[in-house]
Amino acid sequence: MSNITIITSEKNWIEDTAITQLKGVAALPGVVRTVGLPDLHAGKSPVGAVVVTKGVIYPHIIGGDIGCGMGLYSTGVECRKFKLERWVTKLNNIRELSDIQTVNPYEEPSPIYDLGTIGGGNHFAEFQVVEKVYDQETCAMLELDESQVMLLLHSGSRSYGQRILNEYKDCHGLAAGSEAMQSYLADHDQALLWAARNREIVVNKLLGYLGYTSQIQKLIDCQHNFIEQKGDVYIHRKGAVSAELGPVIIPGSRGSLTYIVKPAGNTEVSAFSLSHGAGRKWARSLCKSRIRNKYDRDTIRQTKLKSRVVCHDTDLLFQEAPEAYKNIDTVIASLLQFGLIHVVATLRPVLTYKG
Ligand SMILES: Nc1nc2c(ncn2[C@@H]2O[C@H](COP(=O)(O)O)[C@@H](O)[C@H]2O)c(=O)[nH]1
Ligand SMILES: [Mn+2]
Question: For 161-172, how does the pLDDT look when each residue is reduced to its tens digit (9 = 90+)?
Answer without folding.
Answer: 999 999 998 888
